[in-house]
Amino acid sequence: MNAANPNALIIAPGNHVPVPLSESEQIAQLKKTLLKDIQRSAYVYRVDCGGCNGCEIEIFAAITPIFDAERFGIKVVASPRHADILLFTGAVTRAMRMPALRAYQAAPDPKICISYGACGCGGGIFHDLYCVWGGTDKILPVDVYIPGCPPTPPATIYGFALALGLLGQKLKANHHQEGESELAQPRWPDMPLDLRVQLEREARRMAGYLYGRQIADKYMSLLDLKSPQEFNARIREYLKQEDDPRLTEIFTRLNDISAAVLG
Amino acid sequence: MFKLFKTILKAGEATTKYPFAPFPVSPGFRGKPELDPTQCISCGACTIACPANALSMGTDAQAGTRTWELFLGRCIFCGRCEEVCPTHALALTPEFELAVGRREDLFQRATFKLEPCAECGQPFASHKEVDYALALLVQSGLPAEEAEAQRTHLATCPACKRKQNLADPSKVALGPYINKGML
Questions:
Q1: Which residue range forms the structural domain that includes residue A226?
Q2: pLDDT for residue B180
Q3: pTM score, two decimals?
């Protein structure tokens, strides 16, 4: 192996344990100097390491006029030889490892490597497949991770800005330790458990988990066990305000349930 | 020429102001899953539902703790964890600015204490889960003192419960089944 350039020879993975390439200190220094005062465009080359193409679609959405990454000088180019930023998408399948490494070596130093999407960051849903390496950082040094499946165009632009040192990082590692006398509260403690469960189930059956949960929560917040007349008036007013026949239908069914349970 | 300028003026600017102004996400946008650790009972339902294994739960029996872990790099933002969470502790937020420079920053963790079994002393469930089961009993109509009397029974691990039942059949709690006429 060439000592001056450790990446001259790509180390073959032994025993199915990937050995990521490393970046020499000199190049890391060069990159820091460049990013301190970057006064030119950054060209992006997109390396597909076996993704589903969802990430590619979002990358191209990011350079459309709506999001227009080109106003910051970010341009997608067709060759790694022109690239400043390499964008690795996909979970790095066995077949795409060598092409990805060749693209990495073809790009001139200093280059910024970005792991794009859930597959690039940690293998995504393919992380334990027999035929993938499970993430770009298993084969290459990565500078920025952009999670998402796929990351939306604004998330992509944010990732580019982070890579170029224009914006700060928002997400931090977080470790919560359980405090003394920490208690999980049951929801709607005044309501009979049977009623709550049945209402939530019916609302979810009718409207799906997300909207069902919202509708059940709204219903239970309006529910007044003491005065049914007042409750009925409140519901009628709410439904009139929403003016949605689907919501009215679901609320009618929820009303039937609470009438049956409460008697 | 002026007609063109007029058309341009009328069309306005379609490009978002995003990095300089906050990006308005659509309602129902699925962003970063956020755990409310006080509400979490570490039941592990989310870790079973997670299709990408981004959520995991590790038990350290020696230290008597259980750690919930979310690896955002693997999360596909499907919302199944939110769907199955029984206490509504986990919810997806509209937060999308998740890019990081260090891989470690993609990990979100929460550590909970385990409840030792009242019989054998081996930890078997989290302390909050037992408390939550008691709270549910109270919510379903059991008087608070009676529910508290059942704490030892609830804080016994399944293996010890089985042994107890073999030795003394009168300890089997059949009440709910008898009431519902299931026996």
A1: 193-262
A2: 64
A3: 0.85
